[in-house]
Each structure stands twice: as structure tokens, then as C-alpha cells.
Amino acid sequence: MARQNYKNGYYIGDVNDLDERHGKGTYCWDSGARYEGDWYHNDMHGQGTYYYNDGSVYRGDFNHDNREGFAVFTYSDGTRYEGEYRNNKRTGKGTYYYASGARYVGDFVDGNFEGRGNYYWTSGDWYEGEWHNDERNGLGTYHYADGSWVYGEFADSKLVRRIRSSEDASSGNSSSNSNSSRNSNSGSSGNSGNSGSRSTSSQSTQTSGKIRTETYDNGTYTGEFGANGKRHGKGIYRFNSGASFEGNFVNGVRNGHGVYRYADGDKYVGDFVDSNFEGYGKYYWHDGDWFEGEYRKDKRNGLGVYHYADGSWRFNEYRDGEVVRTFLDSDDIEKAVSANIMDEITFNDGVYVGQHREEVQKSGLFGTKKETHYVADGFGKFNCGDGSRYSGNFRDNEQCGYGLYENKKMRLYGNFRGGKVSGVALMIVGDDAYVGELNEHVEFHGHGCLYMGDGDWYDGEWANDKRNGRGTAHFGNGEWAVAEFRNGEIVDVIKRS
What we know:
The chain is mainly beta. The chain has two helices and 40 strands. The protein starts with a strand and ends with a strand.
């Protein structure tokens, strides 16, 4: 423990042999600001708490003096942000709590609401949809406290085009579904979204109880029908092009879980909404590459992992099919491991190999005896004693930063702090997947989406692995319900399909 005096303040804490601030320590500025936490070669680096002279407090990750990673920022006016930072700005997934009780849960870019998010007013109204520059911009749904809603296009937080509302749903009216051919790049389907119009000239019908076969202009359908004569339930649609869809239909369109096979050998397995890839899905290219993650409007949107045919992979954040951020790259890990051949480090009942630093400790009566210790620091791999394994970032012999944790039951791509998962993650357990916030006990906690292998999925708020707060339950048959949950149980149904 040392004290160092500077022109603008003083430091009390650990130093290295070069008298650099290195380890744990506190820096107090003359202005009244203060930082307590990890240091690395004179930089605030690791986990720490920064107390501003106006009373605001930042608790979270630092990267070479920058706020970067996961943090909780409590402002002097009572507002609070919990989520991701990049280059000192709120960027990524997070929740912004207003002192009034209102809150925003969703995507941030450079400190602004940007992407997709939910905003909850104290009045009971709430909005879910697209944002740009802190304003509702794009498609979204405004929900009123009385259970009514309107879906449409917004510009600068004003509704400029009404597409559908609860009044339409109650009266039986619906907007037309006019999906055009989808672009085949970025993993989109490339098929006609309306599954074909019924032929008037070459229609043949074969009825067999609830299952029957009908021929259309662009293909043939075999499966269940509703009372209105539309495809409704389980069925297979075979396109004349050689493509096919097998899964669930609701009123003639693909809704729920299904498999879309392309004539060229590509395949999508996952959730559909109004014939679009929507929810969680896996896309397999015929060349061996494949993707698993979130889709919205036929494009990769949200968190996902792109797997290459050679076995490498990347954990990315997507927006409209494009990569906006790479959290973790298996090539970086493998290169770091192969370039840092060393004696294996043993700690926490496991074995580590990868990037590291050397620490020399002096001992003996006169301090002449030197012992060299290796400390995991950087990219590496850790094989745990229980058979699980972790690949990713390390700091001071602890998992810290983005990494992949695997055991016999699950794969988890996420951000770690002090050896424990923190913030937004992608967890895959069998055919189920969860995308959202987790607590340090690896419990669903905060906002997240749970996608079930049977086609059901839930998008909403969680607390300690249970649905708590407002959320939307989507069912494989295309039905949905917005409800208030408490300890996993429904306490109030706000609206339903």
C-alpha cells in the first residue's frame, strides 16, 4: 500500500515495481471526484466505482480509463442506467430508469435510444418498437393502459401511419399481407411470403377428415384447414420451385414454429410471424456455414452466433442483417492460445492456457529469492474441474469480459465480471434459447426473450428465473397475450389475440 501525490489529487493503493498504479487502489481528485477499484499500469482498468463531484456514481467495468462493459450509473437527479457501455457512452443493451418511475428497456447507441426497445410510462401506457435518436421512429405498437393498442409507423414519436389497431382486431378487420420476394442474402428466405394464391383453373382438392390437400398456382399444401377454408394448423407447403415449408399456419400464413427448406439446400429452422423469420432461429447454408440467433422481419436482428464450416465462430450483435458489433471471435482465442505456449496455470480447480503475464515475487530474509508466477490475462481457455469449460477473456485469473461457457447441458455466450456472468447473454439449452439479461447466479433477470423448441416464446421482464412484470407470451399456434406476471404466474391479462 502506497501513497502518491499529484498536482490534481492523490492515490492510495497498490503499485508495481515501476511505481505505476497497478492492482487495487483509490484516486482522489481535488475537484471532489474519486475512483475506487482496479488499476492496470496507471489506467483505471477492470472493475471499479467512480464518484463524480455532482453526486453521480458509476459502478462497473473500465477499459484503459474508459467506461466500457457492463455498469450501473446512478445520476444525481435520481435517474439510473443499467447496461452496456462502449467508449464512455451507453451502447448495447440496457435499461434507463427515470426518477418519475418511467423506464426504457432496449437498445442504445452513443447514449441514445437506438434500435428496438420498450418504454413504460407511469400512466400504464407502454410502447414496443423501433427507436432513433431517442424518439420513436419506425414500426411499433403503442399500448394504452385500458388494454387497447395501435400498431403503425412513427416519426419523431408521432404516429404517421396507422396500420392496425385493437379496434380492427375486435371488429374482424385486418391489414393486407403483401410480402414480396425476400432478398436471399443475410440469411433471409428468398421465397414468396404469401405461400401462393389459390388457382382458379387447376385447383384440385382431396379431403380426408381434418387433413386435406389443395393445389395452388405456385405449389401444393397438405395439412389442416380452419373453418374459414384457410390453411390453419400443421401442414406442409411444397413450392413448385423445389422449396418447402413444414410447420404451423394461422389463417393462411406461416405463424409459429417451422422449417423452411430451399431448393438449393439451405434451411431455416425456427420461429415465424406473419410468414417472416421472427424470433429465434437457425439458418443452415448448403456450404456448411450456419447461424443461430435472433431474427426480426426476415433478417438477423439482435444477438447471434455465426458458425463457419471450418468450426470457427463469431458472437455478434446484428441490426437488419448486418454485424454492428463483434463480442467474441473464436479465431482471436485460438491465435492467442497458440501464440502463448506456456506451463499451464492451475487455479479455481481448473487448468488454463492462453495469454498471461508474469509476476515476480521476492521472498527470503533479504528479499533475494525471486519466484515467478503466471497470471491469466487476455484471451485463453479454461477447463474446469467439473468438466465444463470457458473460452474468452480473462483478467487476474478470473473470467472477465466476453466469453463462451459450456457444460453438458448448455452453451452461454455473454459478458463476465469477476468470474460470474453479468448483463446480456445468449444461452442455449437443448432446443430452447434465452436472449437477455442474467444475474450473477445465471438466472433470467431483467428483460429477456425465452424461445421454446415447441414454438412458444416469451418476451418481457424477469426476476430470478421467473416472469415478473409485463411481458408478451407468444404461442406456437400464432396466438399471443400481453399480461402482468408475478413470480411466474399471470396476475392480469391486459390484451390477447
